Amino acid sequence: MTETENTDPNLLRFGWEEWVALPDLGLPALRAKVDTGARTSALHAFDIETFGPASAPKVRFTIHPVPGREDLVIPCSARIVDRRVVTSSNGESESRYVIASTLRVGEESWRVELTLTDRSSMASRMLLGREALKDHITIVATDRFQQPKLSYDVYNTARVRQAAPNRALRVAVLSREDNYSTRRLVEEGEARGHSVEVIDTTRCYMAINALNPEIHYDGKRLPRYDAVIPRIGASVTNYGTAVVRQFETIGTYCLNGSDGISSSRDKLFAHQLMARHKIGMPNTAFAASPKDTDSLMRLVGTAPMIVKLLESTQGKGVVLAETKKAAQSVIDAFRGLKANFLVQDFVKESAGEDIRCLVVGGKVVAAMKRTGAEGDFRSNLHRGGSATVVKISKQERDAAVRAAKAFRLNLAGVDLLRSESGPKVLEVNSSPGLEGIETATKKNIAGLLYDHVESMARPTPVRRRIASED
């Protein structure tokens, strides 16, 4: 390597500044200063944070790739290969994390080590030291941009999202239970190289203010997460959605938003929302304390009919009244307990079966038919029901997708009945279990879920155009 001009055609010519790319980090264009006086290369980074197991630690950080453009933020992550004390040209020493990445210049690419440090005050977001320069590079110290020029305009296009690497994510699963679904989310996420932490929703507490809203857990502020997967139990819906709302406030991607979770849990509002979106469902009536039980029943139809507590979950608080007299007795009993309830038409042709469609990212990724235990009209698996894989019709698929969209849920278990007049949506579940549907369909549902999370947690391209630089 020399700092004088060389005419050898096999040598790469570098000026004192060059355009480079770091494709492993999702950075398609950077201006790098070439400094043969420095041993170690450096990359601009801020909000540097370690995560992952001690045996394979990783670091996540963010970068403003374009000087002066603090609105353009690219999140990155990489495996930590070392931690090194670096002394700058002004004599200051700093302990830095070291990562490895592919460096691409023109048609050439090779692996380099980079230390992470704040270079916001520097004109170049990257410095190339001696260790990163190959032996067949010659330096033209009096010139710049000897290699093909790139442009910051690339950050304005969708190509930034499409070309973003499958970087390691830090994911929080909000769950109070050590059940199959929670374990699968941890297992699948870690198998993909992500760091997945299970957070007990009720142990979170929040600092709510305009300048620096935070979420604390067991006496410490929670770190920044790339994504949150809420598994909010019905008994803690109000507090759980408040925690999700706080994550939304600080800008974390939440698989299901607080509004969607709240809407799906409020059975009365859920039916009103489906009615607003013209989604087929059984005839339903509601009253807090009707004086005329017969009038309420006539709104639904004739017996048999379903009487359902608004707070019912997993089939609990759901009663089949096979005769008019039985329906009157159940309604009077619920009214005497001052309980809120719905009365619904019983879809006889469903014969104790329903279909659970799992919708992820606006697509039905799996479906199963659930059949109730012998003598039970309820098909819930928690009550001894069984599940088998089922092929659904286009009409049923459309109904499931429209229902999930109405609640703005990226993950939804949509339960529907097959009736003579078409599919009838019974319920939209914002925290559907994974065990039954993975067992029945033999599909890796957790994997499909992470496919969606990974696509949404990638950097979003900035739409405002940036003038290209020489």
UniProtKB/TrEMBL annotation:
Top-level taxonomic group: Bacteria
Origin organism is Tropicibacter oceani
List membrane-spanning regions.
Answer: none
Record-linked SUPFAM superfamilies:
Acid proteases, Glutathione synthetase ATP-binding domain-like
Q: What is this protein called?
A: 30S ribosomal protein S6--L-glutamate ligase
Report a single Gene Ontology molecular function: ligase activity
Note the InterPro entries from the entry. Answer: Asp_endopeptidase (IPR008503), ATP-grasp (IPR011761), ATP-grasp_RimK-type (IPR013651), ATP_grasp_subdomain_1 (IPR013815), Peptidase_aspartic_dom_sf (IPR021109), Rimk_N (IPR041107), Rp_bS6_RimK/Lys_biosynth_LsyX (IPR004666)
Q: Which residues form the ATP-grasp domain?
A: 271-454
